[in-house]
Specification:
Two copies of one chain form a homodimer.
Chain A lengths: L20 H8 L3 E5 L2 E4 L1 H20 L3 E2 L5 E3 H6 L12 E4 L5 E4 L4 H8 L11 E10 L14 E11 L2 H21 L6 E7 L7 E8 L5 E6 L5 E3 L5 H7 L6 E16 L1 H5 L3 E3 L5 E3 L1 E8 H11 L1 E2 L2 E2 L10 E5 L1 H17 L4 E3 L6 H11 L3 E5 L10 E6 L5 E5 L5
Parallel strand pairs in A: 3-7, 19-20, 19-21
Antiparallel strand pairs in A: 1-2, 4-6, 5-6, 7-8, 8-16, 9-10, 10-13, 11-12, 11-13, 13-16, 14-15, 17-18, 21-22, 22-23
Helix pairs in contact in A: 1-8, 2-5, 2-8
């Protein structure tokens, strides 16, 4: 894209009511627009980042054998009543509305119940199991407070996956695979080394248990205790003498860290499917409840966490895998401008993700904007860089500030 | 995909409350799941069709110079009050809810107001215009009746585009381009020759005018009058003596046709932007209201219309461009099964969109299923087809029933 064609303008400041660093930077950089507290819209650069995170996650879900679906946001009260999750006392984040005939509807904050209802038409025998489905869907949650930017929104994009298995064995095989795959995803997103799997509640031997994926992040809302060997971490709720004794650890071997949850996985056991009347006939012709698991990754939340972690006083520093574009070309002077067009066209033809900053602004403005937006590499083209050879440009690495003169035809 | 890996099962029948042919076929074929009246979810085959329609539309929007964004579903009451479209008397399809603090919110049925609010940060001078943005977004509309399957839903996927221009000239240039591009889209979707642009209300010389794109379809909710020369059509509302006199036509030169609306485009003039306080400074330093247009295509509705048109007593007959997969391979007998695996692997490697029906079902069942799902081509592999040469298969064209023996290595 040529930036002169981009309708979005970056901003020096945002309204003082926006207190979260991630939202401040994303609004200033032109990735997001704020509708109201906890409600954001995605501008073109923001969509690109979201799409890249989605694609990384989707590829791994498909590799796991999951199939993509898309459930509605409008949900049926009756289904949620069956599992006693309709009332505001039990679930206090519902947005609810009414059809013209007065019937109550809910707006999706999760999908265990509707997806279980949907798969009922497709599961009757052990031969039909396991079933894995996932979606990228807008969730709406009526949060009391929404001050963490896109780390906790009233409307957000989530990947949720659901597994339907014959029994605990079949379930656990998949559940453990998901842990590995989630870790792989966080590595691809550049946060692998600061993300921990933590057992969230209960033990693995109870019917309902869960794990969280927690990333070290100052803006996070959680705390975990990381063992000094750097491999094990415990959630705050279970960091007690009893757990430590069971595991053979001492309190002083752990360091408390502020973290943001970037994923969670749940085991529901057979209870929920039984409540929703989803049974199957096993190999011995016995009727049994289906074993349910659910697996979430907040896509927009991840974008927020990544910005909190990968940013400095100048702006965002995107990991290459999810940067909106890898390169920005910044021309200086007339010779720089015509050369830049040539470089831009050639890079586009090679399929490289590049923008050309052809706006009528000063080089200083453009460099500052590039720092704010956080392209991994800036390519400066000027009389000075072309002094000795007309193919020489200056490549500035956003993360380190490192500068390098090189032949632009070698960039890929 | 190997169909043994697909969790979705086709169905012989659907509940009698589903009266629309498009939804009946799409549910039976395993594309859709019905949550409640007017609320559907998309299963894997359904997602594929939706994605293909989206991609065709998105490519053309990007070619027009529009940028993709994604607005929130949750909307601010205050913005809609400014244009007097919040009250249920003026807009009778709102779904509304409340934040925890009691503040009213609306669920997106359209986006003119919020998008105009959003672009205010980015438009101040004539140099910033025109601006074109579009999105693929879930719209929610509280319809009283919802009996047309996915042709009229309470929640549906829509492409909506918005244009912000300096004046009527700049606006009309784009508006007319959109008409051409919409026609191109309908041609790509296989309904070009039965889709008409109709002037919907007012004339082109009033401030507010609009056009509709109407496709001849028995299940449609509209009527148009098509001129015998096949090039001009008029909406029912403006098919009167006055209009005919102006245009120099006679009533008897027109034939009434039942149609479904597959797109609409609106000119708002400067009124809405003025109400929302979006002005710009023109070349002569005068403050002016921005000229607004909006351009919709119902993506899920199109899928429904296409199924209504391209289907027969056996099932759906997808146009090639948007079929979930182009080919299904149906093996018969042991030799057919092993050969099919070879053909499937080879076609996948070539990047051909193909499924292998490796389910433990009879060939008759699989052929019926293939007819129902509507793959454009069925490839039958059996002892019989391989009689003379082991590379010979039978290719059945879904639309005509035509059968052809040919060497599978020539298929692409």
């Amino acid at each position: 894209m040529k930036l002169s064609q981009n309708f979005v303008k970056t901003a020096k400041q945002v309204g003082h009511e926006e207190v979260a660093k991630n939202a401040q930077l994303l609004i200033r950089g032109g990735f997001l627009d704020k509708g109201m507290a906890g409600i954001y819209s995605y501008l073109p650069m923001g969509i690109r980042v979201i799409s890249k995170i989605k694609n990384i996650v989707n590829d791994e879900m498909l590799n796991l054998g999951s199939q993509e679906i898309l459930m509605s946001s409008i949900q049926n009260k009756e289904i949620w009543e069956k599992t006693d999750r309709w009332s505001d006392e039990n679930v206090d984040i519902w947005f609810k509305s009414k059809l013209k005939n007065g019937a109550d509807i809910g707006l999706a904050w999760s999908h265990e119940e509707p997806i279980t209802q949907m798969v009922k038409s497709h599961i009757s025998s052990y031969k039909d199991l396991p079933v894995y489905v996932h979606q990228f869907q807008n969730k709406m949650r009526n949060e009391i407070r929404a001050k963490s930017g896109i780390m906790r929104c009233r409307e957000f994009i989530m990947k949720d996956m659901y597994s339907y298995s014959e029994d605990e064995n079949q379930h656990m095989e998949f559940y453990n695979k998901v842990i590995d795959v989630y870790n792989k995803i966080y590595s691809k997103l550049g946060i692998g080394d600061i993300t921990y799997v933590t057992s969230a509640s209960g033990g693995v031997f109870t019917d309902k248990f869960s794990h969280e994926f927690q990333t070290i992040c100052d803006a996070g809302e959680d705390n975990i205790y990381v063992h000094n060997d750097g491999k094990i971490a415990l959630n705050e709720e279970i960091f007690d003498d009893e757990t430590l004794l069971k595991m053979g650890f001492k309190k002083e071997e752990f360091t408390k860290q502020k973290t943001a949850e970037v994923g969670n996985i749940f085991t529901f056991g057979v209870g929920k499917c039984e409540e929703l009347d989803l049974f199957f006939i096993d190999q011995n012709s016995n009727k049994k409840g289906v074993y349910l698991g659910s697996y979430g990754i907040g896509i927009s939340r991840l974008m927020g966490v990544i910005v909190e972690i990968f940013s400095d006083e100048k702006g965002i520093v995107w990991p290459e895998n999810i940067a909106p574009y890898k390169y920005v070309i910044i021309p200086i002077g007339n010779k720089g401008i015509s050369k830049s067009e040539e470089i831009y066209d050639s890079m586009l033809k090679k399929g490289i993700e590049v923008v050309l900053d052809d706006r009528k602004e000063s080089p200083g403005f453009k460099l500052k904007d590039a720092d704010l937006i956080g392209y991994p590499y800036q390519i400066v083209v000027s009389d000075k860089t072309m002094e000795n050879s007309e193919n020489v440009v200056e490549l500035i690495k956003r993360s380190s500030g490192e500068k390098l003169l090189l032949d632009w035809t070698t960039i890929n």
